[in-house]
Design a protein that fits this description.
The complex is a heterodimer of chains A (330) and B (321). Chain A is mainly alpha-helical. Chain A is built from 13 helices and 2 strands. In chain A, strands 1-2 form a two-stranded antiparallel sheet. The longest helix of chain A is centred in the middle third of the chain and has 36 residues, at 99-134. Chain B is elongated. By secondary structure, chain B is an all-alpha fold. The chains are: A mainly alpha (330), B mainly alpha (321). Chains A and B meet through helix 1, helix 6, helix 7, helix 8 and helix 11 of A and helix 8, helix 9, helix 12, helix 13 and helix 14 of B.
């Protein structure tokens, strides 16, 4: 088990390093004249030269790469490379902040968005999936399947616009102000306002996922329900509710957890569309704005952040799957 | 259906067999597909969408409105706001006085012209890589699966943006047509799914009697991969093509929605919806949003239904993804 995890961790770290190098090269080729792009707006030639010097842009690529990984640019005498503590991903001259700091300041929004959406979509999918499996073939099953189909086929940006139109614009026309259209309130400040501000984005993200997960839960439940131990449980006279929600669901959740981990990773890496529609200032927005701006240290940083989320979640999912699966227990 | 499954399991023998056997396999398959309700519904929707894409110029000619032509004096009110549906403008006008219906129909062309080649290219590349990786195993497999890991960990939209700026030449003009770049980007992000799927399928067949028999007869590796393994896994891969296609249609629409895919004034559902949202004019002229929105929904739903039907017939043991 430990050896297995060690192998996974090694692979995760090497994947991240390769992603870092590729992202470094893409951005170096993609953005011409980087020093001028990176310098603060209205910078004079002297500042641009200083930026070029700080990034070692006049040296060959392998030295630039080595320097980027090993030391990072010297800003006010502090190095911020990967091997320094805390490990840094460079410096945004535009925003006058270290990239790691910039990303970390946006993480609470993205994390709230992703985890809240996860709770909403998993709860709804599990309930709807189990109910559909229980009433297999009836009108209940069919109408849930139909609704899941619709959710699956509406892209996030469309459902986001519709949700904000109906649940914000139309409601406020009626004088009901349940949900604000945008903004973010930190959880530590006011938990109620936090949830109120995030309700619509959660719903938007959850809808798309329910379309996938409801079907997976249902299919997985039906498969588990045909197994012998469920028949045994029935024969023992256990109430149906316990059989479904306790015995069967526990086993049926295995494939669901794997899938949920991967979806969560993608959302953590930047729910760009949802953040854009609801004006949330998260990692996704930072990523797209800096990509449009040509602020490439931030682009590399957010790319690494997304990749790290993906790699980390895959790793966790892998370990959980092994731990829950009795066949791999030893 | 039972017969199809039985024949599908024999698969190889049938596909390699005489012409009449192959024909009966195909006709059996076709019969089973036509009996499947979701396949029929999906196919009907797709045919409708493809037909409207093909007939877009005819509609433009009948209405006398080109997809990028502006009719500010007819289609906008005195205040400069778009008018609703009328005889001349069946779905009303957009903020620039262009015909929403004609633009939506032309948007279907863009959508399909990007998603279909991208998915097909991804399928070809991914299947080839998956075949090699699954068949040879060992070091090759490890290198390939690490590369799929790497490709999967890149965030789609941000990387797409960086790649699109790669496309800018020294004079600021794009080196390749932007829609071609979008095709390549979507391919780059979807071959991995085909590679993983194919690899798994090949691994399952790798030590089957089918391959062993071929090896005993002395068939070459290429022959085994192309003539023994590929025909057996092809149906599943084709089903997956239909599964991946709607995802890629949404991917293109999302890029265009964010303003990095197909550029205005060329109509695409994504940038039309973005325009409707940005200007908030859909609150006055709902069809500005609903036209491209319903078209996108219908297309994605159609392909989803079609692939569900295909999966039910061809691959009864797989669960919905």
């Amino acid at each position: 088990m430990i050896r297995h995890i060690g192998g996974l961790v090694f692979r995760a770290v090497s994947t991240l390093l390769i992603v870092l190098v590729i992202a470094f090269f893409i951005s170096r080729i993609a953005y011409r004249n980087p020093a001028a792009m990176l310098a603060p707006r209205n910078a004079n030639q002297q500042t641009i030269d200083a930026v070029a010097h700080a990034l070692r842009l006049n040296e060959p690529w392998y030295q630039q790469l080595w320097y980027y990984l090993y030391r990072g640019p010297d800003i006010q005498g502090a190095a911020m490379g990967l091997t320094h503590w805390p490990p840094g991903l460079g410096y945004s001259f535009r925003k006058q902040t270290a990239v790691t700091e910039l990303i970390l300041s946006k993480v609470p929004v993205t994390l709230s968005l992703a985890l809240g959406a996860l709770v909403v979509w998993m709860t709804l999918s599990i309930i709807l999936g189990v109910v559909a499996a229980r009433r297999q073939g009836t009108w209940v099953d069919n109408s849930i399947a139909g609704a899941a189909y619709v959710c699956l086929s509406v892209p996030t940006f469309l459902s986001g616009i519709l949700i904000s139109y109906f649940l914000f614009f139309q409601l406020s026309n009626l004088g009901i102000f349940w949900f604000p259209s945008s903004g973010y309130v930190p959880l530590t400040e006011d938990p109620f306002q936090w949830a109120r501000h995030l309700a619509l984005p959660w719903l938007t993200l959850a809808l798309a996922e329910i379309g996938i997960f409801q079907r997976v839960v249902r299919a997985s439940m039906l498969e588990v329900l045909s197994e012998d131990y469920i028949r045994t449980a029935r024969a023992k006279g256990l109430p149906e509710g316990r059989i479904y929600y306790d015995h069967a669901l526990k086993a049926a959740l295995n494939p669901v957890i794997t899938l949920a981990g991967l979806e969560l990773a993608v959302i953590m890496g930047g729910a760009i569309v949802t953040e854009a529609i609801f004006g949330l200032d998260g990692v996704g927005r930072l990523a797209i704005n800096s990509a449009l701006d040509g602020d490439f240290p931030v682009v590399i940083g957010t790319t690494i952040f997304a990749a790290a989320c993906f790699v980390f979640c895959t790793l966790v999912v892998d370990v959980i799957a092994r731990w829950r699966d009795p066949a791999h227990a030893h | 259906m039972a017969e199809v499954r039985a024949i599908a399991t024999i698969g190889d023998d049938v596909l390699q067999g005489r012409g009449d056997v192959v024909r009966s396999y195909v006709s059996l398959l076709f019969e089973a597909l036509l009996k499947e309700r979701s396949f029929r519904i999906g196919a009907a929707i797709i045919i409708f969408v493809v037909a409207s894409a093909l007939l877009a110029p005819v509609a433009a000619w009948l209405l006398g409105h080109g997809p990028t032509e502006q009719f500010r004096d007819v289609a906008l009110t005195e205040m400069g706001l778009p008018t609703g549906p009328s005889l001349q403008f069946p779905l009303g006008a957009d903020g620039n006085g262009r015909d929403v219906l004609v633009r939506t129909l032309f948007g279907a062309r863009v959508s399909l012209a990007i998603a279909i080649p991208a998915t097909t290219l991804a399928m070809i590349i991914g299947t080839a890589i998956g075949l090699v990786s699954g068949f040879f195993g060992g070091r090759i497999d490890r290198v390939i699966s690490q590369s799929t890991d790497i490709a999967l960990s890149f965030p789609f939209i941000v990387t797409a943006l960086s790649l699109l700026s790669l496309n800018r030449g020294d004079d600021g003009k794009p080196l390749l047509a932007p829609s071609l770049v979008v095709v390549l980007i979507i391919t780059l992000f979807s071959w991995t799914y085909f590679a993983r799927l194919t690899r798994g399928l090949v691994l399952a067949l790798r030590n089957s009697p089918l391959v062993e028999a071929a090896q005993t007869v002395g068939a070459s590796t290429t022959r085994i991969i192309l003539r023994e393994i590929l025909p057996n896994i092809a149906p599943v891969i084709l089903v997956y093509w239909a599964v991946q296609l709607p995802t890629n249609i949404v991917a293109e629409a999302t890029l265009s929605f964010l303003g990095v895919g197909v550029q205005a004034p060329q109509p695409s559902w994504g940038n039309m919806i973005a325009e409707a949202q940005r200007s908030s004019l859909y609150q006055l002229q709902p069809w500005f949003l609903l036209g491209p929105g319903i078209a996108l929904f219908l297309t994605v739903a159609g392909f989803n239904t079609l692939s569900a039907g295909l999966r039910n017939v061809l691959d009864p043991h797989r669960h919905s993804r």
